[in-house]
Model the fold of this input.
Amino acid sequence: MEEEMDRHPLDTIKKLDPEFFDFVVQSSERAYADGALSAKTKYLIAMALDAAHGAVGGVASLARQATKHGASKDEIMEALHVANYLSGVGSVYTASFGLAEVFK
Done:
């Protein structure tokens, strides 16, 4: 698992289609850049969406990014309260598995 976390999740795409990989990375950089919403807020939104969609690895990665941009554990949990309200308890289970990697 540790080796997987060291790899970029799109390494296979990078190998198969470097130009497409660059496009995806640039899109990501634009999406998470500070604007009307802070990068921290955007990472919290994305983390809640990944929790709602069952993406454990996404929750872990985005929670790490959110904390790097100043999000507290309380802010992370509040974002997950919204995911739970809108998507149900499955998002909480997903988040629990993802956050176990972040908050050991």
User: Anything to note?
Assistant: The chain is about 80% helix and 0% strand. The chain has a mean pLDDT of 93. Residues 54 and 68 are 23 Å apart (CA to CA). The chain has two domains: 1-32, 36-104.
